[in-house]
Amino acid sequence: MYLAAPLNCTGLAPEQGCVCQEGRYRNAEGQCVIAALCECDGEGRRREAGSEWEEGCQSCRCVNGLKQCQSGCPPLQCQEGEVKVEETGSCCPVCRKEFPGEPVAECRRYTEVRNITKGDCRLDNVEVSYCRGRCLSRTNVILEEPYLQAVCDCCSYRLDPHSPVRFLSLQCDRGETEPVVLPVIHSCECTSCQGGDLSRR
């Protein structure tokens, strides 16, 4: 009933009684073989039993008629301050500095002389302070909703604790004066982007 090499049988239309013994399978030539001798299909080609090949970024092998693939990348352990990065055109991740060439956070107080106007009123040569700089931001993964946490710092100001404002009088074309209030910035620093006066926190 069982034939060792049923060459006249096909997998599509087997004749009655023309089957392989239990534990054997019909190969591409129509022979009954053990699983270890079965071929595989890989990348549109028939692969010999036990053969190995590269498929994309994976290493594949034909085992018992089944294609088994796994990443061909070696284990990667990055040093402190480095992260794993998948670069374009590369199969395996590499270690890169988390912030390569990252600028240092900087937020400074500047002072300049300006001419202040309001309508037809004006006051020249007024010393004004302001903050300018570059602060850092990042997004962290956390283990609870919303699972992502954005942290943004802004270049914020702190008013002078003793004299937080200056009262000025602008000279108008009609000969009148216009009172204005000018905040006096004491210092600047990078802090959470909430805006407002740091001296109130």
Automatic annotation (TrEMBL):
Q: What is this protein called?
A: VWFC domain-containing protein
Q: Where in the cell is it found?
A: Secreted
InterPro entries reported in the protein's UniProt record: Cys_knot_C, Cystine-knot_cytokine, Glyco_hormone_CN, Ser_inhib-like_sf, VWF_dom
Please indicate if the UniProt record lists Metal-binding as a keyword.
no
Q: Supply the SMART domains for this chain.
A: VWC
* Keyword line: Disulfide bond, Secreted
Task: State the organism of origin.
Answer: Aldrovandia affinis
- Where does the CTCK domain start and stop, copy by copy? 107-194
* Pfam families membership: Cys_knot (PF00007), VWC (PF00093)
The answer on whether this UniProt entry bears the keyword Cytoplasm reads no
Using the UniProt record, give the first listed, main subcellular location: secreted
GO CC, one annotated term: extracellular region
Q: Can you give the residue ranges of the VWFC domain?
A: 40-96
